[in-house]
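G., the chain you wanted modeled:
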Amino acid sequence: MAFPNRLRNFIAVALLGLSLSACGYNTIPTAEETAKARWADVENNYQRRADLIPNLVATVQGYAKQEKDVLTGVIEARAKATQVHVDAADLTDPDKIKQFQDAQSKLTGALGRLLAVSENYPDLKSNQNFLALQSQLEGTENRIAVARRDYIASVRDYNLTLQTFPSILWASTVFRSKKPMASFTAAEGAQTPPAVKF
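Predicted structure as tokens:
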């Protein structure tokens, strides 16, 4: 008699496990971890850019000594951008994301001015170190764009998961503490290409 009861209990537990796995219980944690991983990609690419900047500045300094203001602006923007940290716990705080985004946008603008300055120096433009660094920065900017796009998509998926059926049932009960994550927004004036003036 004990054996059939054990079998019945085992079958009930197995069916409960299957029904829970099919009902979306894991959807919220999976979407959250995906968004956090995408954020780590964004930070990694911004860090790569920050690591390349001192080499680029040093290379340009050798040629463009009188462009001290532009070089100083890049160095200061890099310092400010690397001081703003957003970890996975801050992804639900739109203000922290905006601070991070604003600091990175200022650095992007400073880099644009630095690269524009290089147009005044034909020797610099043909320097292999400068060309390699410029190419690396262009590649990094592309990686940043892709990482941001992937992060935005994963945040959208996570936020939708919190708001759609059947996962909303889990979000309103077991995962009540989970909040929507903040996404990137276009920086003010992002639609306007930077003006290059000499």
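The chain is about 75% helix and 0% strand.

Shout if anything looks off.
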